[in-house]
Write a structure and sequence with these properties.
This protein is α+β, with helices and mostly antiparallel strands. The protein has 2 domains: about 110 residues, Aminopeptidase; about 160 residues, Gcn5-related N-acetyltransferase (GNAT) (Aminopeptidase), CATH 3.40.630.30. The chain contains 9 helices and 12 strands.
Length: about 280
């Protein structure tokens, strides 16, 4: 098993997305979290288990599972679990690990109807109150500085141990991603207000039907900037039917914030432990 590196990540992502139409097939996620090995001419992709120390779980379902027994899988949809059972594996244990959220691109381009009234109001407000300069490149040091400002405003002292661990992991992942923007195909937006970076968004196209909002950070004093970046990103990908913002893990607050922007689908993901039946 090898760590996924920049040398193989584009190829591995393109293979994975054929069977896993998900945020977790994007190259930034794979580089930051995953390992791979080739078995029977297939690529098996793993990440460290969140439930079992020193174990690695598969995040994809191979076409053939060979002689594996007692293997853990994670980030699986109900459809993928059914595929495991069809391959002759019994599900010994199954745990929910949170939902992944999918949205219609056209909703965020058109912003029609009452449900997007608040969205439109926030975008119009930030555009009216500030002169927004939108760029597609920015100095990495300045982007990292905004990340650090964002982190300092978080009340980490009140976070529980697991929440703090997740927060620090997210921050480090974001820093890692900034270093890779010129090495991985992406569409990013950086917004300046009064000559200073106020927010940014990193997006990746997975296939003809799905793009990924990898992550975004904004200075919280600029109300409506998050919504503006949603709209600008969707407008660029207007011919791609859906996008995903990934999952919320076990964070109720994050899940509720994702629900507030009207997902077209909320798909529960699972960890499963398997056993061969024959």
């Amino acid at each position: 098993m090898e760590k996924i590196t920049i040398d193989h990540v584009a190829r591995i992502s393109s293979v994975l997305v054929k069977s896993k139409n998900s945020f977790y097939a994007n190259p930034f996620y794979l580089l930051d979290n995953c390992y791979f090995e080739k078995i029977n001419k297939e690529i098996w992709i793993y990440q460290p288990s969140i439930f079992r120390k020193e174990e690695y779980n598969l995040i994809n379902v191979p076409k053939s599972v060979g002689n594996i027994d007692g293997q853990g899988f994670t980030l699986l949809s109900s459809y993928e679990i059914k595929s495991l059972e069809d391959l002759g594996l019994r599900i010994l244990e199954k745990r929910e690990i949170g939902s992944e959220f999918f949205y219609k691109t056209s909703d965020f381009v058109e912003l029609k109807g009452r449900k997007f009234a608040s969205f439109r109001k926030k975008i119009n407000g930030v555009k009216r109150m500030h002169n927004l300069r939108v760029l597609d490149h920015y100095k990495k040091d300045d982007v990292k500085a905004l990340l650090e400002e964002w982190a300092l405003l978080k009340d980490t002292a009140s976070m529980e141990k697991n929440e703090l661990k997740s927060f620090n992991s997210e921050l480090q992942s974001n820093i890692n991603a900034i270093e890779l923007l010129d090495k991985i195909s992406n569409k990013s937006y950086f917004v300046e207000i009064n000559g200073k970076l106020a927010g940014f968004r990193v997006n990746v196209l997975l296939n003809k039907k799905l793009w990924v909002a990898v992550f975004q950070k904004t200075n919280r004093i600029y109300k409506g900037l998050n919504e503006f970046l949603d709209h600008v990103s969707a407008s660029y990908y207007k011919k791609v039917e859906y996008f995903t913002t990934g999952g919320a893990g076990r964070s109720r607050g994050l899940a509720e914030s994702k629900r507030r922007i009207h997902p077209s689908e909320e798909k529960m993901l699972y960890f499963v432990l398997t056993q061969r039946t024959h």
